[in-house]
Amino acid sequence: MDRRRVVVAALALVALSGCSSHTDKARPTASPTDGARQAVSDYLSALNRRSATDLIRVGGVKDEPRSRREAARILAAKGGRGWKISSLEIGYDFGPTTGTARLTAVDKSGKPMKDKFTVSREKGTWQVVVFAGQPNPPGKTPASTALPGS
Q1: How far apart, in Å, are the Cα atoms of 140 and each of 130, 143, 147?
Q2: Is the pTM of this model over 0.85?
Q3: Region Disordered: start and end of each range (predicted)?
């Protein structure tokens, strides 16, 4: 009796495996980190091209004189050097839409750069938070390190 069950089970497995066609392939799905990684790659491309417009776009800030001035400072320090990513780690400490990027890159002369910044997804678009001199949006109060009542 046990031999019969084994044979039936084996035949059932063979029959089931024949039901799937050879065109049923697992479709690759985009990783949640792909967008953040692409934003960091776009950031380096903007630096390499010395493009304030691209830096502003990937930084997710408004294209206005304040942003242009800050982009010019960033590009003066890091732009046009042929950066290539050596390593990139993104940790999602704050949930699936905000993380910390730890970037190591090397320029065309071999000089390394280590950078750490926030990546965030706003309305489906990943951005790198590299602009510091931006005003707070209306209705938002900046964080304070002062003790209450002081």
Answers
A1: 19, 9, 19
A2: no
A3: 131-150
